[in-house]
């Protein structure tokens, strides 16, 4: 081997070594970023568990899970979380009744009926709703939705579950419509053309071919939107009130788990008291609910993706 060839090989080897070190450094940077997110999640879980353990050392878990009265600060004290869970579920179910049909219909329109130019305008406009601060939605519910409800149901108070459910339903429509539209647009055109070749109409292709073929993404959008509804805070705090109770009347005030956490967080409850520790128990309950829904979403996506591949 000539000296020139040896010099070229050394130069190439040196450059390759520098590239390897750069790649290794970049890999460690990305790994560190991923590690930060994992450690943050673990830290949140550990804090919730630690605070909840201190709470349940003073309160029976059975009383917490089955009690129908919630008043951990004001005497007579009671620690049944069911009123908060009930209020959260009312908001979640009510918002789902609004967001799922409207969001799905919007997604079908954008995917199957809208012209490309119309889609470019309508979809970003819809997604603007997701960028509006939630406290603005709360004031919107107080100043616009609640007066409309009071016009038809005069006995309705300023705070009520119906206004909270409606405003949260409006909030999560963009999530349902955008994610569902992405799933429907990903359906191969071969399926549509085959259906048209069999004489199917546009509506039949949309509802009997496209929607079933994109079912995993559509259902995942539902569950993610409902997870957002469960964790919504400021809008329901302003619209639904802070009255923990189990009621089937949507025009009565209620309190969700997130609204309770806001109430205690801004109050003068002393650190270490039973009222303060209840924050961690409620937070852990809320975390368990949203985690369960996300796991169900992942299972549904994997289950139906296998079916349609």
UniProtKB/TrEMBL annotation:
Membrane topology, record value: Multi-pass membrane protein
Q: Which Pfam families does this chain map to?
A: BPD_transp_1
> Listed GO cellular component terms?
plasma membrane
Bilayer-spanning residue ranges: 28-49, 84-110, 130-153, 159-176, 209-230, 279-300
The principal location of this protein is membrane
CDD domains linked to this entry: TM_PBP2
Alphabetized, the UniProt keywords read: Cell membrane, Membrane, Phosphate transport, Transmembrane, Transmembrane helix, Transport
Q: Which SUPFAM superfamilies match?
A: MetI-like (SSF161098)
According to its UniProt entry, one GO biological process term is: phosphate ion transport
GO molecular function terms listed in the Swiss-Prot or TrEMBL record? phosphate transmembrane transporter activity
Quote the subcellular location field of this record.
Cell membrane; Membrane
Record's family?
Belongs to the binding-protein-dependent transport system permease family. CysTW subfamily.
Record-given protein name: Phosphate transport system permease protein
Q: What organism is listed for this UniProt entry?
A: Natrarchaeobius chitinivorans
